[in-house]
Recover the amino acids of this structure.
């Protein structure tokens, strides 16, 4: 059984108003994306890591790897116009039966415990999607109106999302649809249900400068 | 026209696994609740501030006010068994026509801009509820199943929530119902619609140690 991690870092970081894409920003002095790669390698040293980057950022990434002495072997693949296409490109390197994790490159705080849990559940159920509850009141917008919905009926979806390799490859042969917001939704559209498992609150996605500050605070506490 | 702020700090902080209730925890060396009080006073120095505390924590709060030299005048009211009851107790001190804000004591980062916006909109529309969008994928749990819902159809509700005083007082004369998760839901149950306005992402609710770290990071950046 083979293990793969497709780390999607094909975003151009427009939300951050920074010239450096957010996956390359420094978190305690090290690029965000390097944490994501290291986290998988720590748990499964035999894992095949596939990093999806915007084509024009590949030279910059290679330079960063040299500068920071990143010794973890990984393949580099060019991203597409959408996240869907980027994952498709990554899946071309997934050839054997096993488990594949798809992970946001900008989630540098996925812990060992979380990564192990997701792989273990995916081996058992074929899929494993980490989710977390919310503590805020939630409203559903309906046209110009809105209504409260029970907060415990809502969960947020994180990554890594894990799947049997052949299932995810087949699901990604579908035509793109705007409802494909993550890998779980692609697999569901293919007709397969997904298994939700407990995620971790600290496994945040870095999309703003405030998130970067929060991640630094969390790392300090570890 | 009179302005009021009911700052609800009647929680006992069980989630924090700390003996100190979370509204009294130190944020950059100052109790969380003091930020909330100062934020309203900075924007509207004539505002009547009503702080709702657990009865047994009132002596501790008075001591903290002396220690930190908090000079902002405010009334102190005992909380009830539920948030609903706590707000009811606070509303007993709201007697004149005007605008009342109800605010979580553990949201110390409500900015001047946000507080001004909410009061302004409430003067115009009778109600103003700050909400923020989410950047994560969202799933709705339905029994043992779940399904993706469009992330832009969901918003999180923050505080301060502002209302015409007489509207909120009448709404809080209703009998308690478990669906009352915030003031907006109480007002809606009374038959009045609520006006959603843009909240602020950094206006976080402090319920875990990680939130406290995040708040410190955000304050440093200001």
């Amino acid at each position: 059984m083979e293990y793969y991690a497709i780390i999607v870092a094909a975003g151009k970081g427009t939300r951050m108003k920074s010239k450096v894409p957010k996956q390359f920003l420094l978190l305690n002095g090290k690029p965000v994306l390097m944490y994501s790669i290291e986290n998988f390698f720590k748990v499964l040293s035999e894992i095949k890591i596939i990093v999806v980057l915007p084509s024009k950022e590949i030279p910059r990434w290679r330079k960063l790897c040299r500068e920071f002495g990143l010794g973890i072997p990984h393949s580099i693949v060019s991203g597409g116009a959408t996240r869907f296409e980027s994952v498709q490109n990554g899946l071309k390197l997934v050839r054997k039966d096993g488990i594949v994790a798809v992970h946001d490159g900008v989630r540098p705080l996925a812990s060992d415990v979380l990564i192990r849990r997701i792989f273990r559940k995916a081996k058992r159920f074929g899929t494993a999607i980490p989710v977390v509850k919310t503590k805020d009141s939630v409203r559903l917008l309906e046209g110009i109106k809105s209504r409260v919905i029970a907060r415990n009926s809502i969960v947020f979806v994180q990554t890594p999302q894990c799947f049997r390799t052949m299932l995810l490859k087949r699901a990604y042969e579908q035509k793109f649809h705007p409802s494909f917001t993550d890998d779980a939704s692609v697999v569901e559209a293919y007709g397969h249900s997904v298994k939700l498992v407990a995620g971790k609150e600290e496994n945040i996605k870095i999309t703003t400068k405030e998130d970067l500050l929060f991640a630094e605070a969390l790392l300090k506490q570890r």
Helices of chain B lie at 32-43, 58-68, 83-91, 112-125, 165-171, 183-189, 209-221. Residues 9 and 19 of chain B are 15 Å apart (CA to CA). Chain B is about 35% helix and 25% strand.
